């Protein structure tokens, strides 16, 4: 196939609100001897894109958005021997909100069956990053035990619905879902949450009391908290003695500096994990990816893709997402 010189991509050149986002032509990257060039078909939306755009996480510019995608290999470097032109793949990389992405062949890439359909590619693009996040965290950030009570914030979000399912089905834990609307909580319940806390219709004091009551006054074994600034105090208040605060996101802003002395009263642990720290070694990526797709293929784990947008509609999708109007996973279809 002929590879064009330019391609469409979603990127920004300065930090700011959504109006800094551009959907425009940029060069198709050249590949090195150890790289492959992937023609993308679907790419998943993740909250980290917001952090890069706003400047919360520093990055070089121009910055092409996107952290995961599926597609087909259209070119391989001279030293690549594990992948070939025509292979269908799913992978974790920067710069996936583009028609083509350059990627090192030794990176976090997964070869898909040659008969994988567009539906399969969509599913993998919707599952990879958030699925691996939820799966690695429940083993490695805090190794959840049977019958633990676990608080999950943003429980109807992309990661949240996966956590609800994995914690309840795989780990047999009791999930307390925390979300801002009854519709979101209903979805979390369908995904396995046993107890529901509406963050909009209850006060902070009511939330603390409700969660402590649910746990018979003991508090939760862990809080998987992706909301950050707005929920850190709640998490610390409801985690029980020897419990773990898994603080893994900043949807409402970063958690303010924490006085270590606050941990003493209950001998708490705090973990601030990122997915990549659990899949650094190829064996780790392979192990968790195999487990993730086994759970999906067996029907034990459902990927809630709530909407597919054409890539050119990135700003519309991000506005809904950042405005807390979405549930589950959003996926982009890349123009071919
Ligand atoms: P979600 O689908 O969960 O969307 C974010 C949700 O956060 C919203 O729907 C909303 O749910 C909640 N929220 C609470 N306060 C705010 C606010 N002020 N502004 C916006 N949203 C708010 O997103 P993802 O599943 O993509 O990601 C969830 C979190 O997990 C993010 O914080 C992300 O950074 C983190 N993450 C971390 C990873 C890591 O490696 N550490 C990897 C992947 C994700 P509600 O209305 O119910 O409160």
From TrEMBL:
Pfam families: ADH_N, ADH_zinc_N
GO biological process: cellular response to oxidative stress
One Gene Ontology term of the molecular function aspect: NADPH binding
SMART domains: PKS_ER (SM00829)
UniProt cross-references to Gene3D superfamilies, sorted A to Z: Medium-chain alcohol dehydrogenases, catalytic domain, NAD(P)-binding Rossmann-like Domain
Protein keywords: NADP, Oxidoreductase
Tree of life domain: Eukaryota
Stored PANTHER family: QUINONE OXIDOREDUCTASE PIG3-RELATED (PTHR48106), QUINONE OXIDOREDUCTASE-RELATED (PTHR48106:SF13)
Protein name: Probable quinone oxidoreductase
Organism, as annotated: Ogataea parapolymorpha (strain ATCC 26012 / BCRC 20466 / JCM 22074 / NRRL Y-7560 / DL-1) (Yeast)
């Amino acid at each position: 196939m002929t590879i064009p010189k330019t391609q469409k991509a979603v990127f920004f050149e300065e930090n700011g609100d959504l109006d800094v986002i551009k959907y425009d032509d940029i060069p198709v990257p050249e590949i090195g001897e150890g790289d492959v060039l992937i023609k993308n078909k679907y790419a998943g939306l993740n909250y980290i894109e917001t952090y890069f755009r706003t400047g919360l996480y520093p990055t070089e510019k121009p910055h092409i958005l996107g952290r995961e995608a599926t597609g087909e290999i259209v070119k391989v470097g001279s030293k690549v021997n594990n992948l070939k032109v025509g292979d269908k793949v799913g992978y974790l990389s920067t710069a996936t909100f583009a028609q083509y992405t350059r990627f090192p062949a030794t990176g976090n890439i997964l070869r898909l069956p040659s008969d994988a359909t567009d539906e399969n590619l969509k599913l993998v693009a919707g599952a990879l990053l958030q699925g691996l996040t939820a799966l690695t965290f429940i083993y490695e950030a805090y190794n959840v035990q049977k019958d633990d009570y676990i608080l999950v914030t943003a429980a109807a979000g992309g990661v949240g619905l996966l956590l609800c399912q994995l914690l309840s089905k795989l780990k047999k834990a009791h999930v307390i879902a925390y979300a801002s609307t009854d519709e979101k909580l209903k979805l979390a319940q369908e995904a396995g949450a046993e107890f529901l806390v509406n963050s909009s219709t209850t006060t902070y004091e009511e939330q603390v009391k409700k969660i402590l009551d649910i746990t018979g006054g003991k508090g939760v074994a862990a809080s998987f908290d992706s909301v950050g600034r707005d929920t850190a105090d709640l998490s610390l208040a409801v985690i029980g003695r020897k419990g773990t605060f898994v603080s893994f996101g900043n949807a409402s802003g970063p958690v303010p500096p924490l006085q270590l002395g606050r941990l003493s009263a209950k001998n708490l642990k705090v973990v601030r994990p990122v997915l990549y720290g659990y899949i650094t070694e190829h064996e780790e990526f392979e192990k968790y990816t195999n487990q993730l797709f086994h759970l999906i293929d067996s029907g034990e784990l459902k990927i809630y893709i709530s909407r597919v947008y054409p890539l050119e509609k990135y700003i519309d999708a991000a506005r809904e997402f950042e405005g807390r109007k979405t549930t589950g996973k959003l996926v982009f279809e890349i123009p071919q």
